[in-house]
Amino acid sequence: MYLTSYLALAAILFCIGLYGVLSKRNAVMLLFSVELMLNAVNLNLVAFSRLGLFPNIDGQIFTFFTITVAAAEAAVGLAILISLYRKKETAEADQYNSLKG
Amino acid sequence: MNEMIMQLSPEWILLVGIALVLVGEILLNKDSSRFVLGFISILTVIASGLFVLLQDREVINLFSGSFISDTTIRSIKILLIVGTLLVLILSFAEKVSAKGEYYLLLLAALLGAMTLVSSSELISLFVSLELLSLSSYVLVGMQRDRMISSEAAWKYVVYGGASSAFLLYGMSFFYGLTGTTKLVGMSDSLSIAYHNEHGLLLYLGLVLLFIGIGFKIAAVPFHMWAPDVYQGAPTTVTAFLAVVSKIAGFVFALRLLSGLFPSDGLKPIVHMVVVPALLVIAMLSMIVGNVVALKQSNLKRLLAYSSIGHAGYMLVAVISLLLSKEKEAFFSLYYYFVAYLLASAGAFAILQVIAKERSPDQKMLSGLYKRSPWLAFCLTVFLLSLAGIPFTAGFIGKFTILISAFGNSLFWLAGTMLLTTVISYYYYFRLIRQMYWQDDDKVSLDKIHWSTGIVIAITLIGTFLFGIMPSFVLQSLSAWIA
Hints:
A: mainly alpha, Helix Hairpins, B: mainly alpha
């Protein structure tokens, strides 16, 4: 019973993140949304590690790795955004539209 | 301990190479040439490849089954190393190689790809995949003075991040159902969970996994990032993405799918869900990739769409492999990898000569035959190999995939493959016609850089060798792997 509620919360967070990725115009918000999706997964992993079919510590260890990787990803994303911002002087992601075809 | 160092030697060498390049970049003068760093990187990659070959038939199983290596995996590693080597040699002629980070990131990406094909555990699979992806994001955005380079990197990082989240979300369900992150033994626990009414979570995890994998291998309908990223990235990086990342992505998909579903209790899922889903993705990739490529005039975009089509062909081999588990199916996939690697690397090398810093439009090929007959001839060979015309490696690759598809009664898939191959002739031959029968573009070509010459020569010889003597290559391969 408890597990279901944690999973539902994670699913809601994941969907909010996905909605953000698909609909937000601001580039920083886009990065936030991706982070939200990754953190929803962390919640899922921790819930499974405590209340899953076979509870064990592996899920929490997995979480350490995902947190670290997500941080690296955010750093790379922001760095790219800054170099793009210097060129375009806007953080509106729909202005980044010179690639088409 | 000592033994472990030996068994991981290819990866260690790459790590040492990365450290050397990092230190070298710090020590070198700001204005001095980075040639020496490129040289170190090439030596590192060659040394790593030699150590892979030295391991020969040894079966390696480290960290209680999370790092495995056998001849099959080693054969893939050789491909990744050769691909990176070609990209590194090609880099000498490109401006991005003036930065030390470029070599560092390429080596790091290769390290990620190498550990990716060896991992047999969800955490290490994910971390290796991210090492490959994060390095690629930065590589794509390397040319900061070009707007489209940064923009491509931005698109790549957002789509890549979202796809990683999908992949992880799927993995978390598989962990939850089995309580282990190791692929060995996961299948049996999964089968128990499936028969205890947890099928819904299993299907959910599977769908999420498919979305994540689809993004990584750029299969339709998750392909929209590929053309933009290929177009914006520096040409050498595009070659790296098209060749090394793609092969690593396919091996990743194969590892996950064949690791999760070998258990007999899961047979219904494989036949009812996994194979049909892959079938649809493969068909869509072949059709959309080849049809949309018809109306592309930018050569990089055209090659990007054609690579989406090639992803479809490779998926056909993956499906045959999942269904039959025979060595032949693996060989057909491997052969296709080799053919695709050689032809793509060669085509991108020529693109680099023709376009230089400009955006490579199809018109630049006009009258190439008059300006440089050799270049025109080489590009023709690579395009024919991509199209799958006899006497090139691509033909044998496609042919063996078709045979194994027919062997597994995948008639619809084989039919789609034949049809889309015919469609692809149209745009490949359009480029060839442009080279030979159109008026001159009047733009003079630079002298071909020695490094580009080497890459073109290697890929040209390889394409012919693998096209003319397939039985010799296949026999030596099967002797090694079996």
